[in-house]
Structures are given as structure tokens and as C-alpha cells.
Design a protein that fits this description.
PDZ_sf, Probable 26S proteasome regulatory subunit p27, 5 helices, chaperone
Length: about 230
């Protein structure tokens, strides 16, 4: 038989029999970040594999009369989807431990500030400043707007170059998977409103402002893509 033209260029099957799962509770913040990046890299590669075959996590793998499609490698795509689901669960566990670490970090800062104030240093500037308002567990920016095409859906929604994205629909810093989740949301939301929360630097001061925007992905705006903007992960 000839070579399988649907074979992925990255491993997409289960990894049972490999190294045992790591005990996340024993990892420091640096190791947790490395584990997060490793999982996100694999998720990005697997999502690209699905996309190269014209499918995503929700695409039907059967014909209208219930038979397996013959234009794709159904078994391989099912294996890839199963791997993505496992990796997403692993990613959620890693982010949960990172979230606890961040909460502990801000709690320690708060305790240090309280101790300093009780020691007669109450006139000192706040340690946390405005950071705590924009760095909650679900509000850390995860992407930056790199370009916006005039007249595009992104432009009409109010997105501006330099904005950092905290939430894009259901995607946030805990689950965006190197923006692959954002791409899924855009493809599945054509013609529908997507809530987007961004942080924008105030040009009149050194502070930042939080904005809630309404973005409608669509094709008929006269340019390429559904948004007309380019996002880069932070």
C-alpha cells in the first residue's frame, strides 16, 4: 500500500507507556510554566494537524447517511482529538497550580504591604498599585493586538494596536492554548457577537483602562479573514 497522505507530522496518539505523570504539587512556578508551554506547543501542533485536514474538534466524521467519511483519515483524527482532550485536561491542572501560585504571590505582597504600613511606612506607595485589578486569575492578558485593518470587524468593534486581550469569548489566559482556542471561537462565531475584554494604556497617564468590546466576525467586510486584525500571544 502507498504512504498515508493523512499521516500527521507530529505524534497525535496516546502516550501511555511513556514517562509517568509529574506530580504538579511538587513543581515550582518555573517548572510549571515550562510544563504549560510544553503542553501548549503540542496542542498547537495537533490543532494545526486537524486544521490541515479541514476539520476541528466538532466537525462531523460521517457522511449524511452515517458512513465514515472517505476523504479523511477518520481513525487518525479521532486519535488526535482524544489526545487534545487529554492535553486540555492536563493544561487545566497545570493552570490551576499556577493560579494558586499567583494568588499566593499577591497574598504575600499584601502581607508585606500591611506589615510595612503597621511599621510606620504607611506613606509609602502601594506595592500592588493598579496591578491587582487586571491580574486576577481569569483576567491576565494573554494576547496583544499587533495590527488592525481600517474598516474591518476588529476596527469597528474598537480594537486598537497595542491593546492586550484578557478575554475573547470563552478564551482566557487559562485555556487559550497559544490562541488556537481563539481561532476556534472565531470560526464558530461568524455573524455572531463575541465579547472581548481588553486592557489599553491611557495615553494621558501611565495607567491602563479596561474595555469591554463587542466583536462580530464576518467575511463580507472587504478584506481577508473574519476579523481584520492580527493577535500575537504574550
Amino acid at each position: 500500500m502507498g504512504s498515508n497522505i493523512h499521516a500527521p507530522t507530529v505524534a497525535s496518539g496516546p502516550t501511555s507507556g511513556g514517562a509517568p505523570p509529574r506530580d504538579l504539587s511538587k513543581l515550582g512556578m518555573v517548572d510549571l510554566m515550562q510544563e504549560k508551554e510544553r503542553i501548549e506547543e503540542e496542542l498547537s501542533a495537533l490543532s494545526s494537524f486537524l486544521g490541515s485536514h479541514g476539520v476541528n474538534m466538532n466537525t462531523s466524521l460521517t457522511t449524511f447517511d452515517g458512513f465514515p467519511r472517505d476523504d479523511i483519515d477518520v481513525a487518525q483524527i479521532r486519535t488526535t482529538r482524544a489526545r487534545i482532550i487529554r492535553l486540555r485536561n492536563d493544561h487545566k491542572d497545570v493552570m490551576s497550580h499556577l493560579e494558586k501560585g499567583i494568588h499566593n504571590h499577591f497574598a504575600n505582597l499584601q502581607r508585606a504591604q500591611t506589615a510595612a504600613q503597621s511599621g510606620g511606612l504607611g506613606s509609602q506607595p502601594s506595592v500592588t498599585g493598579n496591578n491587582t485589578s487586571g491580574t486576577g486569575a481569569s483576567g491576565l492578558p494573554f494576547a496583544k493586538v499587533n495590527s488592525v485593518v481600517p474598516g474591518s470587524p476588529a476596527d469597528q468593534a474598537g480594537l486598537r494596536v497595542g491593546d492586550t486581550v484578557r478575554e475573547f469569548g470563552s478564551a482566557n489566559w487559562l485555556n487559550h492554548e497559544r490562541l488556537s482556542r481563539v481561532a476556534e471561537i472565531v470560526q464558530q462565531s461568524e455573524g455572531r457577537t463575541v465579547a472581548v475584554k481588553v486592557v489599553r494604556k491611557d495615553p494621558s497617564s501611565s495607567s491602563s483602562i479596561d474595555l469591554s468590546l463587542q466583536l462580530v466576525p464576518r467575511r463580507d467586510w472587504g478584506g481577508r479573514g473574519l476579523l481584520g486584525c492580527h493577535l500575537v500571544p504574550l
